[in-house]
From TrEMBL, chain B:
Belongs to the ERF4 family. This is Golgin subfamily A member 7/ERF4 domain-containing protein. PANTHER family: GOLGI AUTOANTIGEN, GOLGIN SUBFAMILY A, 7 (PTHR13254), GOLGIN SUBFAMILY A MEMBER 7B (PTHR13254:SF2). Residues 128-147 are annotated as: Disordered. One of its GO terms (biological process) is protein targeting to membrane. It comes from Gambusia affinis (Western mosquitofish). Residues 131-147 have a biased composition (Low complexity). Pfam families: Erf4. It is a lipid-anchor.
Length: 491, 147
């Protein structure tokens, strides 16, 4: 409301924004809100509207699924009737339960978020860079791999900086090159389940291979029993001829048993010593590295380690897959461009007490402010398109600085101009209206600097322009030049 | 009601890994907040948050029960039941909101729930009302003050 009032107070707004408002509406209504999984930076595949998350290559997972389904299907169809009759019906029941458990844990492992760490926001990345530069005493030059050392339980652990995710990885986290994500307590990337195995799905993975071992042994044993019992009556070869499926099952199970049981044994060892596959392969806690090298995460007790790994609390997913993308405040105008304070301060009335709802809106509509071309500096004036929640860099009204405006903001502004109504999240109707104005295309700029006002953080920044903008005096010459310049900047 | 607040910077409180991989934040006071908030207040907030996370990640009787029950039901129970961790996260969320309203917003700061930032604590610093200078032009301010 205030924004609108102050708009009405200032002439320019009537020309620049009102006339274009009706045209803006279609843009606003047309763009549906995107969910976060749709713009997830890693190499993952999402299904069921973000509920299911898998790696990019899932071919082997389907093979696993088919092998399990076919083998079990054959078992239940050809061997179970005989066994239920000859021995006991408990066999198919037990087999069925085991099969369902295997399937459940497999799907749970494959479909869940392994513990992906969200990448750093631009602000955080910048903050880390600053800290690193301060620590190194250099700027601009990228030093060799950045590590931080931390002492955990008396053991020195190195935290590495991930250049892709722009964070210092927590201990035991690792970056999966296949999925292009940093995963907490990274164990390994398993193609058989089509996903990484990390903190959040390790227990499911372990339960899967354990139950699969039992299932494989179960099927193997009972198919052999079936053949043996059959061969007492009909002879060995006839028994085989009668149920050829059994032969297939035996072959599959025989080869699976070695690998699956072996893997279960290996992971049982890992769990009891509280290590990840990654650590074990690298020999991170091996005594070969040094006398004092030990695993700082292990509690020393096998039972405790197992309980922690399998029955510990399950942390929630840190990547909000199904949440909607909010219009994040674009990068703050870097304070170093020297124009942060111009014109902005007068409108600072931070009513912070009630600011929270507002502040949430500060992840707001990007702001595009243009300065009046009547200053004679048309290109620079346009170059002063600034973008950002903070909106602190308002060169408007200043005949100058345009060159000081970061070209970045120009580019961003241009992007915003192009991305009509892309990332808005308004709860405030006025905000909505305000936001609409952000996306005036060059064609719609009716006359020079359609003064597109700031988003919430700086409600009245546009008012700065009021005194400098005299729309009535703008002629078509300026108009065309402005349009041309807007187009130019959007290239 | 329209308010104006200009974001000056964002301060990130880093994780403290000295106790392992458990979620814990450093109580070291960031220098950017020197004149914005009292050290004791921020330290208290961080300590309380740390204690909440310890509670969430505690491996004890309840978590074992939960784990065993979940395993026995092939983890289907997670579809209907809220885990202890999630319950504590809700408490944390409420606590952060309360802290924001009472302590941080009046000082021009805003805490962001760590769960939204990958378990990293972000404090947004807004320009202090008191430090805003006079308007470059009176005409501008007249427009601007129409609230």
């Amino acid at each position: 409301m205030h924004l609108g009032e102050s708009m009405r107070d200032c002439e320019y707004s009537q020309i620049s924004t009102r006339s274009s408002t009706p045209m803006e509406t279609p843009y606003k209504k047309r763009t549906p809100k995107k969910k976060k999984w749709e713009s997830f930076p890693g190499r993952n595949k999402f299904y069921c509207d973000g509920r299911i998350m898998m790696a990019k290559q899932t071919g082997v997972f389907y093979l696993t699924l088919i092998l399990i389904l076919v083998t079990c299907g054959l078992f239940f169809t050809f061997d179970c009737p005989f066994l239920a009759q000859q021995l006991t019906p408990i066999i198919p029941v037990l087999g069925g339960a085991l099969f369902l458990f295997v399937l459940g844990t497999l799907l749970r492992t494959s479909f869940s978020d392994p513990g992906v760490l969200p990448r750093a926001t631009p602000d955080e990345a910048a903050d880390l860079e600053r800290q690193i530069d301060v620590a190194n005493g250099t700027t601009g030059y990228r030093p060799p791999p950045r590590t931080k050392e931390v002492v955990i339980n008396g053991q020195t652990v190195k935290l590495k900086y991930c250049f892709t995710c722009k964070i210092f990885r927590p201990p035991r986290a690792s970056h999966c090159s296949l999925c292009d994500n940093c995963v907490e307590r990274f164990d390994h990337h398993c193609p058989w389940v089509g996903n990484c195995v990390g903190r959040r799905n390790y227990r499911f993975f372990y339960m899967f291979i354990l139950s699969l071992s039992f299932l494989t042994i179960f099927i193997f044993a009972f198919v052999i029993t079936h053949i043996i019992l059959s061969s007492y009556e009909k002879g060995f070869l006839s028994a085989l001829k009668e149920s050829p499926a059994s032969v297939l099952e035996v072959v599959v199970c025989f080869f699976s048993v070695w690998s699956i049981v072996g893997l279960s044994g290996f992971h049982t060892y890992l769990i009891s010593s509280n290590q990840t596959t990654n650590e074990d392969i690298k020999g991170s806690w091996s005594s070969k590295r040094g006398k004092d090298n030990y695993n700082p995460y292990s509690s020393g007790n096998i039972f405790t380690n197992c309980c922690v790994a399998l029955c510990g609390p399950l942390p929630p997913s840190l990547i909000d897959r199904r949440g909607f993308i909010e219009a994040d405040a674009p990068q703050m105008a870097p304070p170093t461009n020297g124009i942060t304070m111009y014109g902005a301060t007068q409108s600072q009335q931070s009513h912070m007490a009630a600011a929270t709802p507002l502040l949430q809106q500060q992840r707001s509509e990007p702001v595009i402010i243009t300065s009046s071309p009547e200053n004679g500096t048309s290109l620079p004036a346009l170059a002063s398109l600034t973008l950002g929640g903070p909106c602190t860099s308002l060169p408007i009204g200043q005949p100058t600085p345009p060159t000081s405006t970061p070209s970045l903001s120009c580019h961003e502004a241009a992007d915003m101009l192009m991305m009509h109504g892309h990332t808005l999240n308004h709860t405030h109707p006025l905000q909505e209206q305000a936001a609409l104005h952000h996306y005036l295309t060059p064609e719609e700029v009716p006359s020079p600097p359609g003064m597109l006002h700031c988003g919430s953080p700086l409600g009245h920044s546009h008012t700065v322009q009021a005194s400098f903008y005299n729309p009535a005096s703008q002629d078509s010459l300026h108009e065309d030049s402005v349009r041309g310049l807007v187009k130019l900047s959007s290239v | 009601m329209q308010h104006t607040a200009s974001l000056v910077t964002k301060v990130f409180i880093q994780r403290d890994y000295s106790e392992g991989t458990v979620c814990r934040f450093q109580t070291k006071f960031p220098t950017e907040l020197d004149n914005r908030i009292e050290r004791a207040l921020l330290e208290q907030t961080v300590k309380t948050l740390n204690s909440y996370y310890v509670e969430a990640e505690k491996v004890g009787g309840q978590s074992y029960l939960e784990g065993c029950l979940a395993c026995a039901t092939a983890y289907i129970v997670f579809l209907c039941m809220e885990t202890r961790y999630e319950k504590v996260l809700k408490k944390i969320s409420g606590y952060i909101q309360e802290q924001n309203e009472k302590i941080y917003a009046p000082r021009g700061l805003l805490l962001t729930d760590p769960i939204e930032r990958g378990m990293r604590l972000e404090i947004s610093v807004f320009e202090d009302r008191g430090s805003s200078g006079s308007s470059p032009s009176s005409s501008m301010s007249s427009c601007g003050t129409a609230r």
